[in-house]
Amino acid sequence: MYQDLAEYYDEIYSYKDYAAEAGKVIALIKSNLKTGGNKLLDAACGTGKHIGYFKQHYDVTGVDISDKMLGLAKERYPDVQFHQADMMNMKLGRDFDVLVCLFSSIAHLKTYKNLNKALKNFSRHLKKGGVLIIEPFIEPDKYIAGALFADMVNRPELKITRMNISKRKKDIATLDFHWLIGTPKNISYYRDRHEVGLFDIEKFKKLMAEAGFDAAFLKDGLLKDRGLFLGIKN
Question: Is residue 1 one of the residues assigned to a domain?
Answer without folding.
Answer: no
